């Protein structure tokens, strides 16, 4: 399979630059994975697609305000840090711009000196391992000084930080939002529960590798990034019970899917698990756990469009995307949603 097999034409103006005022009023395309048929609704109509006894699995990761702007100690040269993931309490792997200013021993200051950093070593891909010093709680300092790390295709400044978080975000650690979940409101989740749908939460801290383009022409030569995940025992039990009852496991987003399919690679029953996953799901791969998927519209030639093509069939997906372009759906992180059933 070539990466060009997953290309589609997308006019620039269809890339959503900001979230809608009401999360659940985004559009929803329903795609039948068996025959490729589509329907057009709004996201709040998702409740009509869910049945009593189904399990809805969401990713409760919380996005770090991971972009920091500061100065090099001594010279005052401007620097940008992007936090990737924590190694120990105060040491983080980060991307720096410009990177040449950051040899081991280089020191940087953020804000009015509330946060300082020293480069310890150069690691993978030219990233840096840095040690932070600060007073108080790191997350609170970061919340004050940091900005949300919006994807490169969003050029408009985000007015409200919370709009790049799901309403159920809980476990801090992502460099990007699990965007399929951005459409849910507390009221909609309550209605879903009242219908008898069981809701479970997994955690996968989304890495920036999510946005890394596939460079290899043959997709099998692509190396996936690793992301940290947690599947709690109560969610494993919920999935096992749902399957045993002949009901559906519906994943909210490709990130929750990656957790479930990583743990379920050897089949059911599932049991609790924590670790790092670099699972790559593309057409021909079998799904062991999920039956349906709520997701956004993904970048051409990305690993995410490959994942949805594995579930619904490449031709069905590309035909649905062509229709979404014709119908002027909004694309990517702040865009509209698709339900593959």
Write up this protein:
By secondary structure, the protein is an alpha/beta fold. The chain is about 20% helix and about 25% strand. The protein folds into two domains: about 5-65 and about 160-340, QueA-like, CATH 3.40.1780; about 65-145, QueA-like (Thrombin, subunit H), CATH 2.40.10. The chain has helices spanning about 140-145, 185-195, 235-245, 255-265, 305-310, 315-325, and strands spanning about 25-30, 40, 55-60, 60-65, 65-70, 80-85, 90-95, 105-110, 115-120, 130-135, 170-175, 200-205, 225-230, 250, 275, 290-295, 335-340. A nine-stranded mixed beta sheet has the order 2-1-17-16-14-3-12-13-15, covered by helices on one side. Helix 5 (about 305-310) packs across helix 6. About 40% of the residues are buried. The mean pLDDT is about 95.
Brief synopsis:
It is built from 6 helices and 17 strands. With 341 residues, it is α/β, with parallel strands linked by helices.
Topology overview:
Elements: E1 27-31, E2 38-42, E3 55-59, E4 61-63, E5 67-72, E6 78-86, E7 91-97, E8 107-110, E9 115-122, E10 128-134, H1 138-145, E11 171-174, H2 186-194, E12 198-204, E13 227-231, H3 233-244, E14 249-252, H4 253-263, E15 273-277, E16 292-296, H5 303-312, H6 314-326, E17 337-340
Parallel strand pairs: 1-17, 3-12, 3-14, 4-11, 14-16
Antiparallel strand pairs: 1-2, 5-6, 5-8, 6-7, 7-10, 8-9, 9-10, 12-13, 13-15, 16-17
């Amino acid at each position: 399979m070539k990466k060009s097999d997953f290309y589609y034409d997308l006019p620039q103006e269809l890339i959503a630059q900001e979230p809608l005022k009401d999360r659940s009023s985004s559009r929803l395309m329903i795609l039948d994975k068996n025959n490729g048929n589509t329907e057009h609704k709004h996201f709040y109509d998702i409740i009509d697609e869910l049945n009593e006894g189904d399990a809805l699995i969401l990713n409760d990761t919380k996005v770090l305000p991971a972009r920091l702007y500061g100065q090099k100690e001594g010279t005052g040269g401007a620097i940008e840090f992007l936090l990737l993931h924590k190694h120990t309490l105060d040491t983080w792997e980060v991307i720096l711009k410009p990177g040449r200013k950051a040899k081991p021993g280089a020191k940087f200051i953020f804000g009015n000196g509330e946060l300082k950093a020293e480069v310890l070593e150069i690691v993978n891909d030219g990233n840096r391992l840095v040690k932070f010093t600060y007073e108080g709680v790191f997350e609170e300092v970061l919340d004050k000084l940091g900005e949300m790390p919006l994807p490169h295709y969003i050029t408009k400044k985000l007015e409200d930080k919370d709009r790049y978080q799901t309403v159920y975000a809980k476990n801090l650690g992502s460099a990007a939002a699990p965007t399929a979940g951005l459409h849910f409101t507390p009221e909609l989740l309550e209605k879903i529960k009242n219908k008898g749908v069981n809701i479970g939460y997994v955690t996968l801290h989304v890495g920036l590798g999510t946005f890394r383009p596939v460079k290899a022409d043959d997709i099998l030569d692509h190396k996936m990034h690793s992301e940290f995940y947690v599947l709690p025992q109560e969610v494993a039990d919920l999935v096992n019970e749902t399957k045993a009852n002949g009901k559906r496991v519906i994943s909210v987003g490709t990130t929750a899917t990656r957790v479930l399919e990583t743990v379920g690679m050897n089949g059911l029953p599932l049991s609790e698990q924590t670790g790092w996953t670099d699972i790559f799901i593309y057409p021909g791969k079998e799904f062991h756990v999920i039956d349906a998927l709520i997701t956004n519209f993904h970048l051409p030639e990305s690993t995410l469009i490959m994942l949805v093509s594995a579930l619904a069939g490449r031709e069905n997906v590309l035909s649905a995307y062509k229709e979404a372009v014709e119908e002027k759906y909004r694309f990517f992180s702040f865009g509209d949603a698709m339900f593959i059933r």
